[in-house]
């Protein structure tokens, strides 16, 4: 007796209300469908269905069994699909979206190696800072840098993306380095309007997250532009670590207030569902996770 096949037959009978209709759904004869249900009842040692010439009804045990049977069959189908997808060769067109600057710096340069490793996948990479709805706009994967609010999408962390408070060496020599977040009121802050509440910077103060209002003569909606302004010695700013790794290594920029930093930002890959996850999506996300985890150690 194949227990799963018998459970499928029982579930189909309950859902269709007859052995004939259940057999049609399963491409089985009425007789074979009935035998599978009988075999299941014999295996369990109890009757699951009350049968008359005109109707079928569930026994108390049948109600209990059917309540769990559907979930078990669904889990089995999901597991079968998972194994089959893992065995399948990744192929097809893959639609990916990522933030413009991060995508130009870190996603696009990886694509030649990815397509060489998976020659049957073609990548359509859309770089935009506009919020993309994966389902409505037909994307397979979105790369996002955020603290990730609740989402119906599956999110896999690819790498940390720390945010640093920094300025040029020349700026700190001229104006001093802030020792406490409240010192920022005496500094020229460059505002990156890509951040929510761009003029209100969060800090860990007295075991709480508190915001400090900052001011400055310049506001811009580009992390790259903010970096250039800060390199010119024009102020202190919040800048993603991936933007300034080289400048920090070379001593052009210094960080400040690291002990108070309250940002918890990461790079994520978002996709629609773990169920029946296409091999091309799995291959791409695994590839990004491997490559970015190496790169991010410098951020």
Task: Give a description of the structure.
The chain has three domains: 3-87, Arc Repressor Mutant, subunit A (Orthogonal Bundle), CATH 1.10.10; 92-161 and 265-298, Periplasmic binding protein-like II (D-Maltodextrin-Binding Protein, domain 2); 163-260, D-Maltodextrin-Binding Protein, domain 2 (3-Layer(aba) Sandwich), CATH 3.40.190.10. It has helices spanning 3-16, 19-26, 30-44, 60-87, 100-107, 111-117, 134-137, 169-175, 223-231, 241-249, 279-295, and strands spanning 49-51, 56-58, 92-98, 121-127, 141-146, 154-160, 163-168, 189-192, 200-205, 208-213, 218-220, 236-240, 253-256, 266-271. The protein contains eleven helices and 14 strands. The protein is α/β, with parallel strands linked by helices and 299 residues long. The model has no long low-confidence stretch (mean pLDDT 90). α1 packs across α2 (19-26), α1 (3-16) packs across α3 and α1 (3-16) crosses α4. It starts with a helix and ends with a helix. The strands form four sheets. The chain has a five-stranded mixed sheet with strand order 4-3-5-14-6. The protein is elongated.
> Radius of gyration, rounded?
29 Å
- Kindly state the number of beta strands: 14
Q: Specify the helix fraction band.
A: 40-55%
Q: How would you state the average pLDDT, rounded?
A: 90
Strand order of the largest sheet: 4-3-5-14-6
CATH topology of the largest domain: D-Maltodextrin-Binding Protein, domain 2
Strand-pairing-aware structural class: alpha/beta
The run of helices and strands is HHHEEHEHHEHEEEHEEEEHEHEEH
CATH class of the largest domain reads Alpha Beta
Biggest sheet details: 5 strands, mixed
- Helix count equals 11
């Amino acid at each position: 007796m194949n227990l799963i096949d018998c459970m499928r037959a029982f579930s189909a009978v309950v859902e269709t209300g007859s052995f004939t209709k259940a057999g049609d759904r399963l491409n089985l004869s009425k007789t074979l469908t009935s035998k599978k249900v009988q075999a299941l009842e014999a295996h369990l040692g109890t009757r699951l269905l009350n049968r008359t010439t005109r109707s079928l009804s569930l026994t108390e045990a049948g109600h209990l069994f059917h309540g769990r049977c559907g979930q078990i069959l669904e889990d089995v189908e999901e597991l079968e699909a998972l194994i089959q997808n893992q065995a399948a060769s990744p192929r097809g067109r893959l639609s990916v979206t990522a933030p413009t600057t991060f995508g130009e710096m870190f996603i696009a340069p990886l694509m030649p190696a990815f397509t060489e490793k998976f020659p049957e996948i073609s990548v359509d990479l859309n770089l935009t800072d506009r919020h993309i709805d994966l389902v409505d706009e037909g994307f397979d994967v979105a790369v996002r840098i955020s603290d990730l609010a609740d989402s119906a999408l599956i999110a896999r962390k690819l790498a940390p993306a720390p945010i640093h408070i920094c300025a040029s060496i020349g700026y700190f020599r001229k104006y001093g380095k802030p020792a406490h977040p409240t010192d920022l009121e005496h500094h020229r802050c460059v505002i990156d309007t890509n951040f929510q509440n761009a003029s209100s910077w969060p800090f860990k103060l007295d075991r709480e997250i508190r915001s400090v209002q900052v001011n400055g003569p310049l506001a811009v909606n580009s992390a790259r532009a903010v970096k250039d302004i800060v390199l010119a010695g024009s102020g202190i700013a919040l800048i993603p670590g991936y933007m300034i790794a080289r400048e920090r290594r070379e001593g052009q920029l210094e960080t400040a207030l690291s002990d108070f930093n309250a940002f918890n930002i990461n790079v994520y890959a978002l996709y629609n569902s773990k169920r029946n996850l296409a091999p091309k999506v799995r291959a791409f996300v695994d590839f990004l996770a491997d490559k970015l985890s190496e790169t991010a150690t410098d951020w």
